[in-house]
Give the backbone structure.
Amino acid sequence: MTASHQHHADPDGVADGPAVPPVVDRAAWQAARDELLVREKAHTHEGDAIAAARRRLPMTEVDAGAVVVGPDGPVALLDLFAGREELVVYKHMWHAGEPFENQCEGCTLTYFAVQDPAYLNARGVSFAVVARAPYAELAPFVEFMGYPRHWHSVLETTEDVLGGGDFGTWVCFLRQGDRVFLTNSVTGRGAEATMPALALLDMTARGRIEAWQESPEGWPEGKVPGWFWRTDEDGTGNSWSGGRPAAQWSRPGATPVAAGAPHDH
């Protein structure tokens, strides 16, 4: 470990505790930042190339008349387009019969920051959230969370209509007249596109403080991935057990829950 990463206080006034980045003058900091910027630009350009390839994917037809159930009762998949050409759907994981605090913290994070589709709508893209549960079970959760009324039950909808695969997935559709086509689906790490909190944390010196991350020697010990997605009433991470998904604590009527509440992510 270099002197700049030692844990004790040094002449630059860095407090005792976990290692911190070396202290340099502004010119040296700017040089290091500019060097990293070259790699960041290359990463951005590669992302542009992948997005271009994504636009060249083929599409496959799905049942436009498949029924989903929302706040206005049963409607067809085609109706979710609201006359627009495209539709983006989030397949929200749901644990049937479980209380609000046992609903998926990962899906909460994935959807919470993008629940207002104003900018999608302005570009001609409609938006919906679906879950495999009776709508009567979804409605109180939507009200509690203060979510828009674009949630729908797909309890009786065949999985091939929704692109197959797991929930916790974004699915994209294109409409041509009265026909609907599946164009793309994204899950796993790809879903981080709608998790701006993670992108911001990746900009910070400490990052997410998760065990899989490569960090300098002496950094805080990494924890299980997603450790801060579920918290207690004081905002303390609970490593996936106990508490509530973090966003729920801003909801009226949120109360403490027993630690270790049953949950399977």
Q: What stands out?
A: The first helix runs from residue 26 to 54. DSSP finds five helices and ten strands in the chain. The radius of gyration is 22 Å. Confidence is low (pLDDT under 50) at residues 1-9.
